[in-house]
């Protein structure tokens, strides 16, 4: 992976902070909006610099959380009213797509 700049980290952090209560965005949605080459960059940023953000609102496009986050993430999303069926976020109703870069 190419070096990640402070500017990229701050763009992703700002986008995550703007995900509305009761909604989710995907790693891919955030990567596109932050003009990054890969959703994996968003994943790396979330792993290393998201403790003060609503990290639970970022999920894979399948709507399933990572296994190690599953219980905590789904509990937090349920508390916000996100519809979850069979351990998967109902993306058709919960997905928030941040605006793409100009």
TrEMBL record:
Pfam families reported in the protein's UniProt record: DNA_binding_1
Classification via CDD domains: ATase
Tagged with keyword Ribosomal protein: no
Record's keyword terms, sorted: DNA damage
Domain of life: Bacteria
PANTHER family reported in the protein's UniProt record: 6-O-METHYLGUANINE DNA METHYLTRANSFERASE, ALKYLTRANSFERASE-LIKE PROTEIN 1
Species lineage: Bacteria, Bacillati, Actinomycetota, Actinomycetes, Mycobacteriales
Organism: Williamsia phyllosphaerae
Residue intervals of the Methylated-DNA-[protein]-cysteine S-methyltransferase DNA binding domain: 10-82
InterPro entries in alphabetical order: ATL_DNA_repair, MethylDNA_cys_MeTrfase_DNA-bd, MethylDNA_cys_MeTrfase_DNAb, WH-like_DNA-bd_sf
UniProt name for this protein: DNA-methyltransferase
């Amino acid at each position: 992976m190419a070096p990640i700049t402070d500017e990229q980290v701050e763009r992703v952090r700002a986008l995550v902070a703007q995900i509305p209560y009761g909604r989710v965005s995907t790693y891919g949605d955030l990567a596109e909006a932050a003009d990054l080459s890969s959703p994996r960059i968003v994943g790396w940023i979330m792993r290393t610099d998201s403790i003060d953000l609503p990290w639970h609102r970022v999920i894979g496009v399948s709507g399933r959380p990572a296994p190690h986050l599953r219980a905590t993430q789904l509990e937090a999303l349920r508390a916000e009213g996100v519809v979850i069926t069979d351990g998967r976020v109902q993306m058709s109703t919960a997905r928030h797509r941040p605006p793409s870069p100009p």
